[in-house]
# Entry
Amino acid sequence: MSPTAILVGCAELPSGDGDDDAVVPALSSLGFAVSWAPWDAPADFSSADAVILRATWDYAARRAEFLAWCESVPSLFNSAAVVRWNTDKSYLVELLDAGVPVVPTSLVSPGSPASFPSSDFVVKPAVGAGSRGAARFAGGADASAHVAALHAEGHPALIQPYQSSVDTSGELALVYLGGVYSHAFTKGAMLGSTMDDSGLYLSEKLAPASPPADAVAVAEDVLDAASALLGILRAELLYARVDLVRGADGKPLLLELELTEPSLGFRQADPAAATRFASAVRQQLA
# Structure
């Protein structure tokens, strides 16, 4: 009997955003019976051999419900424990404390006062997807109202100095499948972008990339540190996307580590990337 794989979207994107279109035939070619379903649909997730989070972009507004659903799915990739850790961007502070080169990040809990940098900075929600709720401010500005609005949603706010390299070179995303490097792509500046038709995330300008050695080295350190914090092997991560930017000194810094619902840039990758993904799914089941 063929193993079954369910790719998980949301009500607004029940079959994903198109980035994973090549994954379906790749999984089918390796013997999987593949289907799509929104995470909150009445599908039989418990009997599937692999339930793979791909486009659950609406989780931020319903995180508690989403995490409860994740906990109920026996064969979820990435695992519910990984999702719980990764859907709260407080993990950036943990990685910073672990010695990973992270964009300097201050965490402001609800009820706590915030101090703002003298240079341009960004305020974003600790729980959020698709850059929703992120805003850029000029140095010395009072962003208290925006912080308060984020706190009203019940989550901490993150404050980070704006990295001006984003304006010229954007972000570099390195994709790992089963803990092994697969491909990379660049992303243009997100702040100021227009909302996608789904209303769930900001549109991105993406392009294929060949990552330089220093970026690969940082991405490897990020995955090792995250795996250690989670108490797992890197190979247990079906997919990971490491988003890097260049700091003022030109060195790569972690902006975000995406382990839950990231677009993996298959449309910007070589044709074999989808097959590598399908092979990594088989590896997880083995």
The chain has a mean pLDDT of 93. Residues 4-78 form one domain. The radius of gyration is 18 Å.
